[in-house]
Specification:
Elements lengths: L2 H17 L42 E4 L7 E3 L8 E3 L2 E3 L7 E3 L6 E8 L14 E5 L3 E5 L34 E8 L2 E2 L5 E3 L2 E6 L2 E8 L22 E2 L7 E9 L8 H4 L9 H5 L3 E4 L7 E6 L2 E5 L7 E5 L4 E4 L4 E7 L5 E8 L2 E7 L3
This protein binds magnesium ion (MG).
C-alpha cells in the first residue's frame, strides 16, 4: 500500500467508524475547556513522516492548485485572487485577503501542502498563522508550531478553538508539510435545525492528529459559536492572517453520499406462508466441510433462524418457497436440498457470490 493510499484508507476507516454512532445530542450542557485555554494540555510532539515530494492527485480529484495559477480561486469578494504564484507554490500577500475556491464542496477529502517562513518570526498566534476553512466556516489551523507555544486549540492542526491536535506533528519552518483532511458536512433539517454536526479528521505529515471529531459549530476566535443552517456545498477558503505562508499541490476529492434504500427495496421479496409444522423439518445441524462449526437451523413459533459459529440468537430466514429462504437482514439466502419425501438432506448458503454447502447431520 502506498503512503497516499494508507492515508486515504486511514481517513476512510475513521469516517466509517464515526458513522456508526452519528446520533447527535445537544452539547449545550457539556463541560468544556474555555476557548483558547492555556492550561489545556498541549499534545505530545511526534516525529512526522519524512518530507516528500508532491505525488499526483487521485484520478477523480478536483485539482485546486497545480503550481501554475490561481484560476480555481477568487478573493473573498469574488474578484481575482491576488496572492503571489511562483516556482510551483502560491504565497499569501498580506492584506490581499482570504481566497476561496470557485468550486463548492460538502463531504470532501482535501490534500494541501503548506510551508511556514524561515527564519520564523512572531510568536503564539502571530507565528505564520493561516488556515484551511472547509465550507469557509470550519478551520483546520495552519501555524508554525515547531518548538513554538500557543494555546492548544489554536496550534497547527487544531480544529480552531475546539480541538487540539492529538500530536504536534510539525516540521521545522521552511519545510513543506501536508494536511489530508476528511470532512463530513453538517446536516440540517428542512426546519433549519441541526440534525448531525460536521466531523473532521486530519492527517498531518502522515500522522493522524484529528480523529473524526464532532465540531461544536463554526470555528471562531474567542468563543464557541452555534450552528446556523447553510447550504450543502460551499467553497474552501485559505486564510490571510498576514503571514507569507506558502501552499502547493492542493486537491479535493468529493466524497460520495452513501445511498439509502428507497421504498421499493423493502418489497423486493415475495414470501410464502409456512406453518410451524412445515418449518420443523428444516431444523437441525448442517455440517460444513472443513469447519468444526455447523450451521444450526432452529425454529421459534413460526419463525426459522440460521445460526453460524454457535452465536446466540440467529439470522431470521424468510421462505420464498419450500426450498429457498432469504435472510431477513442480510443479503444472503439458503437453498435446501430436499429428498423425495420433502425432508432436507443438506443446504447451500449463498452470500456475496460465494456458495457454502453443508450436509445435514443425522440425528
Ligand atoms: Mg488560522
Amino acid at each position: 500500500m502506498t503512503r497516499c493510499n494508507l492515508i486515504l484508507a486511514t481517513l476512510a476507516i475513521s469516517l466509517a467508524i464515526g458513522c456508526l454512532g452519528c446520533g447527535y445530542a445537544s452539547e449545550s450542557e457539556a463541560i468544556r475547556w474555555k476557548a483558547h485555554d492555556m492550561s489545556r494540555p498541549k499534545p505530545p510532539v511526534v516525529t512526522p513522516l519524512p518530507e516528500a515530494q508532491p505525488s499526483p492527485p487521485p484520478e477523480k480529484a478536483v485539482v485546486l492548485f497545480d503550481g501554475k495559477d490561481l484560476s480555481q480561486w477568487t478573493s473573498g469578494d469574488g474578484r481575482e485572487a491576488k496572492w503571489k504564484v511562483q516556482d510551483g507554490y502560491m504565497e499569501i500577500v498580506s492584506g490581499a485577503g482570504t481566497i476561496r475556491t470557485k468550486a463548492r464542496f460538502g463531504d470532501v477529502l482535501v490534500h494541501i501542502e503548506w510551508r511556514t517562513p524561515t527564519p520564523p518570526t512572531g510568536k503564539s498566534q502571530g507565528r505564520a498563522n493561516s488556515g484551511v476553512f472547509l465550507m469557509g466556516l470550519y478551520e483546520a489551523q495552519v501555524l508554525d508550531s515547531y518548538e513554538a507555544d500557543t494555546y492548544a486549540d489554536g496550534q497547527a492542526g487544531a480544529i480552531y478553538g475546539q480541538y487540539p491536535p492529538r500530536f504536534n506533528a510539525c516540521r521545522p519552518p521552511g519545510e513543506w508539510q501536508s494536511f489530508d483532511i476528511s470532512f463530513r458536512r453538517p446536516r440540517f433539517g428542512a426546519d433549519g435545525k441541526l440534525q448531525e454536526p460536521a466531523r473532521m479528521s486530519v492527517v498531518h505529515n502522515g500522522i493522524l492528529i484529528q480523529d473524526n471529531e464532532e465540531l461544536l459549530g463554526p470555528t471562531s476566535w474567542l468563543k464557541y459559536l452555534p450552528y446556523k443552517a447553510h447550504g450543502d456545498a460551499l467553497p474552501i477558503e485559505l486564510q490571510d492572517h498576514g503571514a507569507p505562508v506558502r501552499f502547493r499541490n492542493i486537491w479535493a476529492l468529493p466524497l460520495p453520499e452513501l445511498p439509502a434504500p428507497d421504498a421499493s427495496y423493502a418489497g423486493a421479496y415475495k414470501l410464502i406462508e409456512m406453518s410451524a409444522k412445515d418449518l420443523d423439518r428444516y431444523t437441525g445441524l448442517y455440517d460444513r466441510p472443513n469447519s468444526a462449526a455447523p450451521i444450526t437451523i432452529t425454529r421459534e413459533g413460526n419463525r426459522l433462524f440460521a445460526d453460524f459459529y454457535w452465536r446466540p440468537g440467529g439470522l431470521e430466514l424468510l421462505p420464498l418457497s419450500s426450498t429457498e429462504f432469504v435472510l431477513k437482514d442480510t443479503d444472503g439466502r439458503i437453498v435446501f436440498d430436499l429428498n423425495d419425501h420433502g425432508i432436507p438432506t443438506g443446504l447451500t448458503f449463498h452470500l456475496g457470490g460465494d456458495e457454502m454447502p453443508a450436509e445435514k447431520r443425522a440425528k
